[in-house]
Amino acid sequence: TEAFLAEIEGADALNAFVHKTPEIALEQAKAADARIAAGDAPALCGMPLGIKDLFCTRGVASQAASKILDGFRPEYESTVSQNLWDAGAVMLGKLNMDEFAMGSSNETSTYGNAVNPWKVDDRQLTPGGSSGGSASAVAADLCMAATGTDTGGSIRQPAAFTGIVGIKPTYGRCSRWGIVAFASSLDQAGPMTRTVRDAAIMLGAMSGHDPKDSTSVDIPVPDFEAMLTGDIRGKTIGIPKEYRMEGMPAEIEKLWSDGAEMLRDAGAEIVEISLPHTKYALPAYYVIAPAEASSNLARYDGVRYGRRARLGQGDGIVEMYEKTRAEGFGKEVQRRVMIGTYVLSAGFYDAYYNRARKVRALIKRDFDEVFAGGVDAILTPATPSAAFGLGEMADADPVAMYLNDVFTVTVNLAGLPGISVPAGLDAQGLPLGLQLIGQPWGEGDLLNTAHVLE
Ligand code: GLN
To answer: In the UniProt entry, which residues are flagged as the active site (predicted)?
Structure first.
């Protein structure tokens, strides 16, 4: 713990940690020492972790990287982080992210962007987003592992951009209680780690039914680590033809087919599959996610949490709401609230929101049919490119940024588990990731297959 705290002090340039909690860390580490001495060491005993700023941590600033939550210190602990402390883990601090987890580059954060520890010459790169601080901190060895959350790719894309492992579990595997809500039907927490084994151990600790989240499912949590046998003989891996996008860089195509080759060498059968509704996933996601966000973010009213704008003479409650939300929310968050409110409004509900929900059902059915046909897992690239330069996309057309999520959002829409594993480097020497998509509740098999690709 002391070594990591020292590393963090020397790594301010990465802007990965936005709140450091050395006192808590040293106290938890001491408690972990005592448990080890007493011969009662749980799975994560003494493991120093970073926690994404989206998780509420008792008494510690938890702002979802938003100005509107300035000064907010929750009275409660998220279930997932509590599970980690119960398993003996140590909190080093809170990690940078896009504001309310909306973004793919960590550039919408009120703290400014985190930086990718990987560089090409002097070009500063994004660590991805929204869990950019988590990815940066794990890749730069500032912690053993970190928590992330993934609504449309926010664990898997930053993992791919920084050469680490990130898994989004099946919807309902981890409790969402105490995690600041973005799009409640899509949000899931998961681990970001250096190895698949670490991901298996940490996911086991994070998971489990929680009566405080009615969408968390009461299903046993297997020993994921024990399932890492490396034996995938007889498994069927699907390659979806719709993910072979026009204009995809040749090196991503190559890593994808090399990955398939590795799985075949390990005894899996590789088959081509079709997920015909894939092309509608991104537009459906960018209707459903903002719709849910506009509703979830209605609670930031200047009264219940964090910040309230300075009011002028004669301002009433409406002005208080307007001024607080106008100065407390950043540009991307405001854009999402407006899109969401629009697609939910009476005249447009059927044309947008309802249609997106129907598309979502078709996307889910595509996956159900493929799995019913005997496919165990699906292999795709994690991202359409390697990490891009900071500032390169942020000021461009927002849709260009949304396109980053083209391979990841389908998984959230269908509620499936998905993992990104480091697959190799591109011609510039930057990491690229491969994604494996698994059957519902099949995280153990998924981790085992990913282990073969490591
Ligand atoms: N980049 C996507 C978005 O901005 C995904 C975010 C996420 O998974 N939290 O909505």
So the answer is: 52, 130, 154
